[in-house]
Amino acid sequence: MSTALLILNAGSSSLKFAVYRPDAAGTPHAQVRGQVDAIGAGARLRVVDKRGRTDIAITACDHAQALACALDWLDAQQSGLDVHAAGHRIVHGGTNYRHPVRIDAAVLANLESLVPLSPLHQPQGLAGIHALARLRPGLPQVACFDTAFHHTLPPHAWRLALPREFEAHGIRRYGFHGLSYEYIAGVLPEYLGDAADGRVVVAHLGNGASLCALRARQSVETSMSFTPLDGLPMATRCGALDPGVLLHLLRAEGLTPAALDDLLHHRAGLFGVSGVSGDVRTLLASDNPQAAEALELFTYRTAQAVAAHAVALGGLDALVFTAGIGEHAAPVRAAICRQLSWLGLALDDAANARHGPRISAPASRVSAWVIPTDEESVIAGHTWALTRQA
């Protein structure tokens, strides 16, 4: 039998999972990566392991059934698999959780209380915890938080310009994508050397998109705020928006809170502006002028936000692109970098077309990089550290 860690990342209609095995030094390495898509109707189990790829239709009406199918596949296909513990990506840890924690009844109750702060993300993460507790009673489970990495923000960065009484209700800037930023911060010395502890902005650009300003590889500013709606325009999320627009939509346009919630989360962003898609790949391939306008908005707002994060750092030494768009969309990276040339960033077009890792010219005062992220490895490392004696 070989000790293994099960890593889970639950989405609204999907469940990502991975199996890691620690080596002799205690460093976990991925053995299997998989995902259940379209939970509810037309679900499919897709897995990649050392033997190749699996893609099969399954019946999964909810996350519990999706997890059961994934575990059944692992039991049947991964001989000698001894799941020692499970680690979960949990989007919101509130003000209490600055580090990963072993999940018990008290922790679970606290996480349930945070659902109002992240109604579209928190329930899915908790669903994975509950489902696994039913399917594998007694299995140690660990929660790793996307908000935890940003607890190093100074008060002037996390405080909102509202009466202080609301801070007691948890109304403040939190920041998200912390597991991705934690991974990038950990590997920065491999790419930047001594400059890793300098003034670095990381652009996590994917279906959800945000920035993080790092000094000494700690978060000092980030673009997401109280919720993952704030900051950059995203695939279907609006990003930063004048609060007066929300009041107008409620008063003059007659939107209900539920309709406004749906608009801001599911019908805005690149999808809303383009009318074509929220997927950057589709927009880049489209000849619809509105698709080009959506991309122009996205790259402009991202470059603008990078400059704002440079203010928090007192300058900029390096810009790092990561996540789906950041790692694979060379035209998007090029458009952002060219708008930052005044900061001393000179793009190497050939290196950018090759996806890096360094995509700035040798003489560029600000270096630019493409570094793949790996949130699951961060979760696996924390899970093993908290449960290895269990």
Q: Could you describe the 3D structure shown?
A:
By secondary structure, the chain is α/β, with parallel strands linked by helices. The protein has two domains: 2-145, 2-Layer Sandwich (Nucleotidyltransferase, domain 5), CATH 3.30.420; 193-370, 2-Layer Sandwich (Nucleotidyltransferase, domain 5). Helices cover 37% and strands 22% of the residues. It has helices spanning 63-77, 105-113, 122-135, 155-158, 178-192, 243-251, 257-266, 269-274, 280-285, 289-313, 323-328, 330-338, 349-353, 375-387, and strands at 2-10, 15-22, 28-37, 44-49, 52-57, 81-90, 101-102, 141-145, 199-205, 209-215, 218-222, 318-322, 367-370. The chain has an eight-stranded mixed sheet with strand order 5-4-3-2-1-6-8-7, with helices on both faces. It has a five-stranded mixed sheet with strand order 11-10-9-12-13, with helices on both faces. A hairpin with a 2-residue loop joins strand 10 and strand 11 (218-222). Helix 1 (63-77) crosses helix 3 (122-135), helix 5 (178-192) packs across helix 14 and helix 10 packs across helix 12 (330-338). The longest helix has 25 residues, at 289-313. It is globular and about 55 Å long.
Short account of what is shown:
This protein has 390 residues and is of the alpha/beta class. It folds into 2 domains: 2-145, Nucleotidyltransferase, domain 5; 193-370, ATPase, nucleotide binding domain (Nucleotidyltransferase, domain 5), CATH 3.30.420.
